[in-house]
Amino acid sequence: MSTLEIKDLHVSVAAEDGAKEILRGVDLTIRGGETHAIMGPNGSGKSTLAYAIAGHPKYEITGGEVLLDGEDVLAMSVDERARAGLFLAMQYPVEVPGVSMANFLRSAATAVRGEAPKLRTWVKEVKGAMSELDIDPDFADRSVNEGFSGGEKKRHEVLQLSLLKPKIAVLDETDSGLDVDALRVVSQGVNRYRAAGDVGVLLITHYTRILKYITPDVVHVFAGGRIVESGGADLANELEENGYVKYGAGAEAAS
Amino acid sequence: MTDVVSGLAPELAGANRGAGLVPVASAGERFTSFDVDAFEVPGGREENWRFTPMKRLRGLHDGSAALDGTAAVEVAGAGEGVTVETVGRDDARLGEGGTPADRIAAAAWSAFREATVVTLDGTPEPVTITVAGPGEGATAASHLQLRTKPHAEATVVLEHRGSGALADNLEVVLADGSRLTLVVTEEWADDAVHVGAQHFSLGRDATLRVTSVALGGDLVRISPTVSYRGPGGDAELVGLGYADAGQHLEQRLLVDHAVPNCTSNVLYKNALQGKEGVPDAHTVWIGDVLIRAAAENTQTFEFNRNLVLTQHARADSVPNLEIETGEIAGAGHASATGRFDDEQLFYLQSRGIPEDVARRLVVRGFFGEILSRITLPELRERLEAAIEAELAVTGA
């Protein structure tokens, strides 16, 4: 069973008037088999947490630790983190013109699994995973995310999740921009991933609607760059009714 | 076919003259001559020289290059249906493909001592022609003509290697109904300078497929001109260039549609990878397409894409479409220059792909469209390997 430990994490970004602190001491532990939801108002730093864990160069870690099964994640390069078992489903997946989805998926699987998947089983595996997410087989020949709609991009993030089978997956607003049908398909994909192994999920969302499909074990409220309250699934219901007003005082604009 | 183009804008009225037996030039109205002295010595500010680093031309443009070296031409694989001749300057066939349109092409024409003429008939096996530079510090002029017999179908690989400076003309004269697949590689040593004019002349219903691969050399400037002698001609020119630090790769194309029912398709892709402290990696792509008044039912498309992999790189791209008749099947042009940016790198790395592999994926994907046109597997694999090697040299 894997464990991701985030201890007193402080993160800044470079701004015009010097470094700006966005995360102000985040403490969070996610164990295999658990699903945590992080909810919070826009600008509370939720996405920064996701990108900092993945190692985006824009974010500077100014304090704290991130450990995956005791290994220092912050000392790893971006690709090393992924190979160690971390995955970030991005809110805005990046277009990579000229690289076909098929080629990209195979390269990623080769890197993460440490060897090239056997061609025959791989083709089958990809086809199956695509059909589970209602992705047209033609997408395999298209450039990575190029010209994809918002919903198509999200499906492909979950497709990668299902093929790369990380130990811990961070899903950053995977529900945003999805219609109800797409939300259901994407959520089912995440649930299949959860069911298939002893994996941890950190679900970052602004809205509660995805939590109707993916039931969290723990809900955290994020405001002002840290977790201000944690509770069970019913905390989400309370947020749905009352919004983030109660936490608004501590929330400074940050993105 | 009509002689008069109706509804022509007043400023284009003169274009009607192009409908006659002797087409009047327009983009077209560029000066051409076999005589080097008919051209002014370019200073570098002229439209057709403004992107070229004149100081690195080794004097090919101003007469200071002696052009007394030898660029050896070797023909391999010349079996049945292939005739290889070495001919003097007075051979009547020389010049059929076209006339030099800049001073260096004219200088090459004025200086070459003997020309190689390769005639292709029937369906010969692929022929490989290697042109070697004159050696470091030397300058040379050379001349090569490829000809097809009517309805011939042939494949020619033309490789450029070695050191020194070369000015040359390549004539490709396609007979009616013939088909030529030509792969031209620029695999020069680091010091080499190659300024080449390519004259493609297509007979009635002739088909030309050219793939150009520019990898080596200090400065490589190639100016292909496509002209059609009869209707039904079909030309496709695709190319790739990989400019690394300090390298200047220039492609200047003119497709001259002067007769009806012809097709042209141009696609060039360049990748650039510069380095601090050396001159920019520089690519220049000029794509001129001229559809003269007589060239009704022309179908043409030209496209240039550049991928800037690093800083210290500069891609110039100038697509230019001149249309003198409204009676065309289709015409389009496009140019796009993009950067391999940090976000793309982050995305690929976040899926476990190491940085060097990510970079290779992007470049391979980018060039795949061009390399896939090369049907000779060994050649394609060698060029793919050469590109990988370029990536490894300057890659992260």
UniProtKB/TrEMBL annotation, chain A:
Q: Which residues form the signal peptide?
A: none
Q: SUPFAM superfamilies, per this entry?
A: P-loop containing nucleoside triphosphate hydrolases
A Gene Ontology molecular function term for this protein is: ATP hydrolysis activity
In this chain the ABC transporter domain maps to 4-249
InterPro entries in the record: AAA+_ATPase, ABC_transporter-like_ATP-bd, FeS-cluster_ATPase_SufC, P-loop_NTPase
Q: Name the keywords, alphabetized.
A: ATP-binding, Nucleotide-binding
The answer to keyword Ubl conjugation applying to this record is no
SMART domains in the cross-refs: AAA
- PROSITE patterns assigned to the protein according to its UniProt record, in alphabetical order: ABC_TRANSPORTER_2
**Which domain of life does this protein belong to?**
Bacteria
- Transmembrane domains' residue ranges: none
Q: Does the keyword Nucleotide-binding apply?
A: yes
Task: Tell me which PANTHER family the record gives.
Answer: ABC TRANSPORTER I FAMILY MEMBER 6, CHLOROPLASTIC
Say which family it is in: Belongs to the ABC transporter superfamily. Ycf16 family.
What is the recorded name of this protein? Fe-S cluster assembly ATPase SufC
**Organism of origin:** Pseudonocardia bannensis
